[in-house]
Amino acid sequence: MQTCSALTLVGLTLAAALAGAGPASAAEAVGDEQYRPAIHFTPQQNWMNDPNGMVYYNGVYHLFYQHNPSGNTWGNMSWGHATSTDLAHWKEQPLAIPTDDQQDIFSGSVVVDRDNTSGFGTAANPPMVAVFTSAYKDASPYRGLQAQSLAYSLDQGQTWTKYSANPVLNRNSANFRDPKVFWYKSPTGGGYWVMAAVEATEHKVLLYKSGNLKDWALLSEFGPANATGGLWECPDLFPLAVDGDPAKVKWVMVVNINPGGVAGGSAGQYFVGNFDGTTFKSESTKASDSLPAGTSLAGFNDGTYNGWTANNEPGNWKNGPFADAPAGGALAGQNAVTGFAGAGLINSFNDGDWPLGSMSSPAFTVNSDYLNFLVGGGQHPRISDKLDNTPPPGDLLFSGFEVPDGTTLADAGWTGTADLAPAFQPSTAGGDFYIGAKRINTFDTGGAPGDDRQGTMTSPSFTVSRNFMSMLVGGGHRDAGSGQVLEVQLLVNGTVVRTLSGDDAGALNWKGWDVSAFAGQTAQLRVVDQATGGWGHLTLDHVMLTDQAAVPRSDETTVNLVVDGKVVRSATGANSEVLDWESWNVSEFKGRQASIRVVDNNRFGWGHILADEFVASPRPATPRLQTYDWLDYGRDYYASVSFGNMPQDKRIMLGWMNNWDYANSIPTSPWRSAMSLPREVALTQTAAGPRLTQKAVQQVDALGTRVSYAEKKARSITPGTQALPPAAWGQVQRIDVTLAPGTAAKAGITVLGNGNSSTVIGYDRAAGEVYVDRRNSGNTAFHPLFASVDSAPVSLDASGNVTLRIYVDRSSVEVFAQNGLRTVTDQVFPEQGASQVSLFAEGGTAQLKSVSVTPLSKSMFVPAPTVKKNRR
Fold first, then answer.
1. Which end of the chain has fewer CB atoms < 10 Å from its terminal CB, N or C?
2. Per-residue pLDDT tens over the stretch 303-336
3. CA 232 – CA 255 distance, rounded (Å)
4. What percent helix, strand, coil does the chain show, rounded to 5?
């Protein structure tokens, strides 16, 4: 059982009192918390990301991983450690390689040095050797660099000693990392160690060789190739026999990328080719494409905007963000920009991310079915028509905190406790998009400023005289499972009736409440900060009573289609300097006047937009990302690499089941992040060449107890959603379903449902895709990029069917389509108790060919089964 510190217990008690709650119930047992996976590895507590050093040795599978031993967000990178005898039941071990004052311990691999080439062990007791990236801190003479280092273990991975002569491979680079090492057997006899590591920003995998793991010589480089929209990370290189034929061996190069994945954010791509011991040559790299067929509306290739109007924010010395003419590529301070066509493009990085502005095309008549264009830059979707920060009409409360100089909120009638004593407020520091000079900022309070400042502050009374309240709010937020309270509260008669908080952002934005139910009543505002750690503060400004609901400012970087003065289509970038094709179906607007508006309304990270080559076309353009080969088409399968030293040369891969777009925000506590199920991968011949197929390892399927529900006789799935009997319901289960789309536009199955929400897994007949729709899957509001529909191209089989194997585990779904040729992995956070399973069809009738549901026994935080030895 976990223990709570005295400070945590005090915080929990105070939080309950503030919310008007009764005594807290007993803490849930480890492994039974809401969202805790039952069959996926999670650490007992704290942050986890990339799997590292996965290796099999003496009957034990070792999983090391990026771990923060001190908190539940990224930081203090060290190697955590877990072991298993069956790839299903994992036991967390003591911290393996900790961070220190000189370096963080970034990703890498572990090898079993059987011949003691390193000299760290003996012939009788060969060492396990970890090859990892040292991310050097300011205290190190290598500060700011990333280089490869060694540690070794002589007790089968339980304790580790760092090599005294680290680093062993240093390129004086800040982005050289993630070494994956394996033993290469030369066809002519003998062999040597091969390391694959990345120069992340250059989109290159560098291959090195060594005879002793200490001295390394460069063999070759691979890349850039295919997806280059983000950092290349966590490479892997291994051979596989095509269709199991040892005479047909190909090599697979895995390259993980963030951002720039096919579903957005983090993902893993792979290449199939040949490796001769020196060079990897890909046979699956895609050539660059040509412009789609159609009529060009704008190409920006003659050195002018050719009739487009730039509306640049006044006062920026470089006339940013768009200047007066197209860019020829990257601008000053910008990484390389690629993927555009011709000589010019729209690039709003002129003078960096700070300037705001927009561009508008001349009006044109829509006369095609599709509008295709290239887009890149920041991922900031359009959320409203509001592009400025002006307050709505209404009554300003508390003078906007603009108290006379030399006075405080204590003089204005506020009361408070601890660090939020009103004598410390208002602040004149912190946050962006506040109004005036002063605001409440719980970071800048009593004692030394910081996120660990705590207390409450309560306003004087006021009368609720309008239907809505609007205010500017920034800073952090805490979910209910954190045990911390960080929010603005509305009190009526001393009872909390409304709350809101920040979005883990420095920018304040408009938020508010419908308060019509409290018209004429006396109320107070209370700021509560019982949070510690990252984003453990709130900023608040310009509280107003209004006659309309709060409209958030749209901090967008977008390309928009405007018809009759209204935005009818919108697209944003993917936090990437690589442009890719976007297509809008505009057939409904044929014959009407339209214009294109490009908007940069974001001052901060990735606060710019790229656009090029607007083409009116009869058909949609295919995004280049969709033509590449991906390990998984969901949002939550990243940093995936394979186990080393496996028996029978099996190739088992495992990935981090999260996405850097929202990784630090997922609503789990006291842990954050899970690993995927271990997957056995193989190469299968397809029309496009050999491609990977994947399946969960058989040990996972062995967790199945018995089939709880099955239908083996074909039947129709009529339009609508029909719940299967309760015998099919569950939160930890494997579902095997085969269906034919028939006349239905979409058909499939929903899981983790409760009548109000569910995760939808279906087949889109027109698109030829299997998809996971988690937009109404439960808790999706913790991050604006979480709600998504993620799809993979899947062809029907010769019988016109699609077959899915789905693993459901409390807070995730892993979908294997058509015998694992495509997979989609997504986290979901369903409502408490949601377990319903239903079939559905849209736009016609589908055919269910068969379905079976197998509950899976819990394998985490339970004793591992005893391994029975064969007796003779």
1. C
2. 999 999 999 999 889 999 999 999 999 999 999 9
3. 6
4. 5, 45, 50
